[in-house]
Amino acid sequence: MASKDAASGGLKLNYKRTLTIGFAFFGILLLWQVYDLWCPPFLTELFKTAFGVTDEKQVQYLVGIMMAIDNLAALILLPIFGKLSDRTHTKIGKRMPFILVGTFVCAVAFPFIPVFFHFHNVVGTIAMMMIVLVFAMMYRNPAVALMPDMTPKPLRSKANGLINIMGYIGGAFATVVGMVFVLSKYLGTTEGAVDSWAYQNIWAVEAPFLIASVLMLISALVLFFNIKENRIAEEVKDEMALGEELSEAADKIDVDDERPMTKANKIMLFLILGAEFFWFMADNGVSTFLNNYVIYGLNGSSASTSLLTIVGGVGSVVGFIFGGLIAEKISRKYTVVLGLFLTLLSYVLWTVLTFAVGLSGAKIPMWLIVLWLVKGFGMSLVHVNSYPMVVELCSGKKIGAFTGYYYASSMAAQTITPVLLGALLLVPEFDWFLLPIYAGVCIVISITVFMFIKNVKTKKTSFKKGLEALDND
Fold first, then answer.
1. What pLDDT, on a 0 to 100 scale, did the predictor assign at position 184?
2. Strand, coil or helix: what is 463?
3. Which of 194, 187, 186 is nearest to 49 (CA)?
4. Are 16 and 159 in contact (CB under 8 A)?
5. 12 three-class SS
6. In the chain, what is the straight-line distance between the N-terminal and C-terminal CA atoms, in Å?
7. Are strands 462-463 and 10-11 parallel, antiparallel or unpaired?
8. Which of 154, 109, 155 is nearest to 135 (CA)?
9. Residue 46, SS3?
10. Which domains does the chain have, with CATH numbers?
């Protein structure tokens, strides 16, 4: 059936297979949501006690450095694992060995992060964070590369939207767990007294990590038993070839092309990665310090952070659903630009309203919740279309490598932005209100770079619709 559809000029998205591949992204976002939500406050409390300080702002630069070291390792490892998986050939496929090994080690090491934190062991906490990072990078790149491995180029924005929805289900689950096991209740009961740490309720911080580990293992097993890489690659061979003909690259690429990139495609790649660097500078800068902003800037709790995260996730899911459809109408380029402008608008209004009405008397003001919804929708339009734009510029034999380039750009930003923003927070004139100003400046730069990308229009693709589109035989 796949060959017949391809020969007739029709392309259809295999929803069942795409959602199954999404289980890999479910595990990825579940892990990182728990990691990003809990590790910065862990490090803040550990460093405050270690250096004998009471002002959390005095140690934010150290928190930023530690989070940046993680990302620096990822910057190196993601392209390596991407290229290795491109060149790997086994009976279970080229991506699956990396996914299985990486997930298993992560699942074992992840629950030890709060254990070492609970007993006030700085070295142990950081060591477990590093182990998790290395093996998460082993499976992250190959897991993400599975989608373009099996999806023709014109359908990748829609497929990426479905996969991101699966990921955000994992992230939402993690935030709900975070609201149940409220971090601030754990941290605020002893005022950092070292002797009493071992007597606190360890399950308040251990449970989210254990739950995440179990679900990561389950998601990997679902993927392994349902996605047979080698068989599917043969089944979709004709559709992948047709997808190459309909791609939005500046210069067309053969499905098995291993020649160097053309100048036009290189320019497109560098511009996309450059713009991506700055929007991740903005997004990761805010997300890294968001929990600290709520806890220390608004005197709120991590449950309030979880509320913002869930609201942003709702906006993101809406964007993931419609991002591919919007791109069909106005192109991927202008869909990304639209998302960046919506994100910029949310940061500008966040800044203006902070000074206009203030934050006193309301831990999480309603207007901030609304802006988080807008920001979530805007950034989802960016993410759902930007990754397909990168892998649009390579053949099927280099998807892992180009996935590595995409994540290398994001990780470079996530290496720099926590350190830079943490250092800026040391300046006496700055306070937590710096977050939206910093992010807004980065988004402006990103939009400027992205506007130089060539907008390639191709002949209209014949997509399957209605009940025909659900035919997955």
1. 47
2. strand
3. 194
4. no
5. coil
6. 6
7. parallel
8. 109
9. helix
10. 14-457 (1.20.1250.20)
**Short-list 322, 380, 317, CA closest to 346:** 380
Among 387, 161, 379, CA closest to 272: 387
The reply to whether the predicted model has a pTM over 0.70 is yes
Distance (Å, whole) CA 365 – CA 452: 38
Token readout for 267 is: 């320019």
Evaluate whether 166 touches 321 at the Cβ level (below 8 Å). Answer: no
CA 245 to chain centre: 29
For 13, list phi and psi in degrees, rounded to 5: -90, 130
Report the candidate in 229, 278, 256, 273 with the shortest Cα–Cα distance to residue 402.
Answer: 273
Q: For residue 274, how many other CB atoms are within 10 A of its CB?
A: 17
* Angle formed by the axes of helices 366-391 and 399-424, nearest 10°: 150
Report which residue type is found at 370: V
∠ CA 273-306-340 to the nearest 5 degrees?
30
- Give pLDDT, residue 385: 92
Q: Which residues pair with 10 in a beta bridge?
A: 462
250: DSSP letter: S
**Alpha helix (H) ranges present in 151-262?**
156-180, 183-187, 203-226, 229-235, 237-245
Q: What is the mean pLDDT of each run of 10 residues along the chain (473 residues)?
A: 41 87 83 82 85 76 78 81 90 92 93 88 90 89 88 87 82 65 50 41 77 88 90 86 70 62 86 96 87 73 73 88 88 93 95 74 76 94 92 84 89 84 78 86 96 67 38 38
Distance CA 263, CA 260 (A): 9
Cβ neighbours of residue 77 under 8 Å, at least 6 residues apart? 134, 137, 138
Secondary structure string (H, E, C) spanning 23-45: HHHHHHHHHHHHHHHHHHHHHHH
